[in-house]
Structure formats: structure tokens, C-alpha cells
Amino acid sequence: MVSLTVEGLSVRLGRHAAVRDVSVTLAPGQLVGIIGPNGAGKSTLIRAMLGLARPQAGRVLIDGQDVARIDRRSIARAIAYLPQGQTLHWPLSVERLVALGRLPHLGPLSRLSDEDEAAVEAAMARADVLHLKGRIATELSGGERARVLLARALAVGARGLIADEPLAALDPGHQIDVMDLLRDEARGGALVVTVLHDLSMAARWCDRLLLMDGGALVADGAPMDVLTEQALAHVYGITACIDPGNGWPLILPTGRVNTRRI
Amino acid sequence: MTPRRPPLLIPILLLLLVAAALGSVMLGAVAISPARIWAVLTGGGDDVARAIIIDLRLPRMLLGLLVGAMLGLSGAALQGYLRNPLAEPSVLGASNAAALGAVCALYFGLSALHPLILPLLAITTALIAIAGLFLLAGPSESPLTLILAGIAVATLAGAGISLSLNLSPNPFAAMEIMSWLMGSLENRSYVHVSVALPCIAIGATLLLADGRTLDALTLGEEGAQALGANLNAARLRMMLGVAIGVGGAVAVSGAIGFVGLIVPHIVRPLTDRSPSAVLWPSLLGGAVLLTLADIGVRLIPSVNELKLGVVTAMLGVPVFLIHLMRERRLW
């Protein structure tokens, strides 16, 4: 079990205050979605959760320990991270790329054990990329590559998973697969946090939503409590058709609110 | 991590290494049969063969293997670290900078003060060049910025070599400039081996230690950190490893270009292509390539022996061309 506590966190990127005084406690077992308009500070918040962005104020605790005091390998073993739109810098084979997820577990000279190999294989199966195994990762389509990178994150076998926009570039079928997968991970006792833009997907799969705007956390709770007409108008500047749909909510943006920024 | 390289690659390279080493002792102005070599090595043999083998060819062979191994390995490590297939010590200017340090030590009489001054000065100038290069190129991952910065460093250091040789009271300046800029293993002795060996051993150890981090860096710097890599420590090891190893190598051989570029490109398709899997094969392949090139310069009939860099440049240019054609989608 891994738990994450954010206490009065503020992060500056250059002069820009990307995250302002955010406090939140995330427990395992729930699928937590972070939503908000572009530039709301979602990615910076999760990078700070992993100790990749230095807080200007406040702190992040993983299992009660300050992230700034935990060494990188321990963080890597505790929480897997799938960055947003990750670019690949070297033409690796898919299998080798997924196997990178085992790095936090390996000693300096040890080789992949059978257990590592099994974890890699299982991760590829879960992200539906087994058939791409022998391909060169840089030659895949955007959606295929996104799933391979998700498999890489799963291969870590961590108790926590933080995924930044895992649905970008995926076709509808695979979007559903990935959301199912994230929810299964959470149900299995993992801490799962994901940044999403599709409000319907967020409402349907997530157990809890954090709504961010201008670096601040403006709403936190069950999806249908967060996704109100007022909140959508205020934060996104949109009007939307919200249909609770008997457990399968549908949120369809219908237009701009005139008073809001473009 | 497990390199699933074809299990045959390392044994084949070792076999080639032995063959190249043997060839390097056998071949030259006078060919010596393996039987005579065996006789000399076991303590017998005639005086002529003994002089040629023990005093001339063995140190030359050892230096060829050592310098080649270091250049091949640092090319592979730099390419992985910078995620840039064109990175290598001479393209990035580190070799020329080290040669400048060696030239200053030799021709301003500093190396006569203490035998360690020559390699130390070469290592220091190489370190300054690499640190300057990383600063100039910044955190950008564009191959272009890095190569441009490398050209700037290499050109400046090359000009420095010419300048210091012309300023020194040296009647053979032109010839010496050639040797330092193109590299040569002519007339080397065990003194040179004893200078190069420790530097190259330290440099190679530092570079071989970072395979994991190089693999993690294929996901970018943040991706590598999220996998637990300590990038500051890795950067320091990379800079020191290249500076010490290449500095020590260049201090005895001059700046030999392209070995670190060619070798990783040849061995990479025979591995799983991950940066870590290329390190050992590049070390062995570099030793083989430079030893073969050195046999080549001895066998090509010419008044003055050809410089090693001439041969490696001829082999290196096609690698650039292939890259160019791939960029232009002609390949």
C-alpha cells in the first residue's frame, strides 16, 4: 500500500506559479482523475508528487516520508510514472523498451531474472502490445507507442501508478481498455492517479476527481459532484449537456460561455 | 539489464581481436612468421626478430588495442548518453583538446619535469572541452546544436595545436602537427604503454558502469529520473570517463578520428540496439578496428608512413554519408 499526501504545495516554473497551495491526500484503492483546462498545473502537480519538480513551498509525502528525502530508486519502485506525450530518444525494440520498467529493481550488474521477464511479458499482455514485441518503438503509430509506454510503466510493478494523459492518441476501443486497466489496478489496491481531458471518461471510470484551475485545486470529490454546470462554466468556460445516465454519465460540451476567456 | 545480444558477437569479436593482435606483430616492413614470434615469446629466437617484436611491434600492438578500445567505448557511451548517433570524442572536439594539452606539455618542456604531467594536461584539456561542450550545447536534445558546439571546440583546439607547434622551437613542426591531428602509433615504446594503460583502465571502468543509466535515458532525462537514475552522478562519470580515458589515449597516439563513430554503428545492428548492449562490443570492436588500421598504414607503400587518422577518416566518412542519406530518405 502506498499513500500520497500533498501539503500546501506551490511550484513555480520560472516566474510562472504553476501550482498554488494545493493540499490533498490520496489513498490506494481508488482511481483518482485530475482534470482541468490546459495550463491548469495538472502535470506540474504530478511531477512534484514524484519529486521531479521542486516545490517552492509545502511538501509531498509518500507513505509519510518527504519525497525530497527519498532516493530516486525508492520512489521509482514505489510509484510508476507515465509522462505526457513521452518522446522516445533511441530506436529500441518494444520488448527492450518495456523491460526498462524493471530498471529500478536491478542491481548495477545483475541481469533480468525470470521474474523480471515474466513481469515484462505480463505488462505487454495487459497493455495489448504483445504482438508488437519485436517492432522498433520509434516506428510505431502514436497510439501503439502510447500503449507500449503504458506497458513500460506497468512493468515496474509498483504499488502506485501516475499516468499523465494516457488516453491521448488512443482509439475509442483502447481508451476503454486503458481506463478499465487503470481501474483494475486501483481495485487491486494500487494508488492510481491519472490526468484526463475527456470528461465523460473521467466521470465514468474515476472514483474521485480533482479539478484544477490556474494552479489551484478548485474541486475535489465524487465525479458528479465535481462536474457541475457551474464548475464547467467557471473553469473551462463551456456550457455542457450533463446526463447522469444511470451510472454511465455523459458530459457533452455544447458551447462556449461568452464571458469566459477564449 | 540483460542484453539479449546474439551470444556469438562477443566471441567473434574476441577472435578478431586475437587475429588482429597477431597480425600486428607479424606484419610490417619485414614480415615475421608465427613460428619465429613463438620462438621469441618463449625466450629463444634470433636477435633481429627479438628486437623487432619485443621493442617495436609489441608496444605498438598494445597501444593500438588500448587506444582503439577506449575510442570505440567512448563513442558508444557518448552516443547513448547524448542520444545522438553522431557523438564521439573527435566529432565533439574532446580528442583535439586532449592533443592540445599533450602538445603543450611536450613542446614547452613541461613533460620533462614529471612523467605524469603529459597525461594530466591532456586529461585536463579534454575535461575542459567536454564541460564547455555540455555548457554550449545546453540541455537541448537537438543533434545539430551538439555537433556545432563540437566543431567549434575541435577547430579551436586544432588551431591551438598548430599555433603552439609553430611557436615552439621545433624544425619538424609541420610533420608534428600532422601527427597530433591525424594520430600515429609510429615508434612507440613501453613508456607510452605505461602512460596510456592506467588512464584507459580508469576511463573505461567509469564508462562501463553507466549502462543502466544510458538505457533509462532513452526515455529522456525526466523519464530516466522517474526510473530512479541519478543523472548528476552519471554526467560526472561520463565526463570524467571520457576525459581520463581519451586524454590518456590521445596523449600517446594523437587525435585519431571516427573510431568512436564507426564502431558503434557497425556493432549496433548485431545487438538489441540498446545503449548498454553496445558498450562492450564497441570496446572490443574499437580495438580490432584501430589495430587493423595500424596494420594498414604499415603495409601501404609510401615514403612517410601514413597517419592513422587518414585510414579511419576514410572509413568514417561513409558513416556520415549513410546518415545523411537516411535523413534525406534516400536510404
TrEMBL record, chain A:
Q: Report the domain of life of the source organism.
A: Bacteria
One Pfam family hit: ABC_tran
Entry protein name: ABC transporter ATP-binding protein
Q: Which InterPro entries match?
A: AAA+_ATPase, ABC_transporter-like_ATP-bd, ABC_transporter-like_CS, P-loop_NTPase
Q: Name the family.
A: Belongs to the ABC transporter superfamily.
Give the record's keywords alphabetically: ATP-binding, Nucleotide-binding, Translocase, Transport
Q: What does this protein do?
A: Part of the ABC transporter complex HmuTUV involved in hemin import. Responsible for energy coupling to the transport system.
Q: Supply one GO molecular-function term.
A: ATP binding
Protein's UniProt keywords contain DNA-binding:
no
| Domain called ABC transporter: residue spans | 4-239
Stretches of the chain forming a coiled coil according to its record? none
Q: Which organism is it from?
A: Sphingobium terrigena
The reply on keyword Translocase is: yes
Automatic annotation (TrEMBL), chain B:
| PANTHER family in alphabetical order | ABC TRANSPORTER PERMEASE PROTEIN MJ0876-RELATED (PTHR30472:SF25), FERRIC ENTEROBACTIN TRANSPORT SYSTEM PERMEASE PROTEIN (PTHR30472)
Keywords tagged on the record:
Cell membrane, Membrane, Transmembrane, Transmembrane helix, Transport
Subcellular location per UniProt equals: Cell membrane
Q: Where are the transmembrane segments?
A: 61-78, 90-110, 116-137, 144-169, 189-209, 240-266, 278-296, 308-325
Give the protein name, as stated in the record: Iron ABC transporter permease
- What is stated as this protein's family in its record? Belongs to the binding-protein-dependent transport system permease family. FecCD subfamily.
Q: How does it sit in the membrane?
A: Multi-pass membrane protein
Report the GO terms under cellular component: plasma membrane
Pfam families, sorted: FecCD
Q: Which InterPro entries match?
A: ABC_BtuC-like, ABC_transptr_permease_BtuC
Query: Do the record's keywords include Transport?
Result: yes
State a single Gene Ontology molecular function.
Answer: transmembrane transporter activity
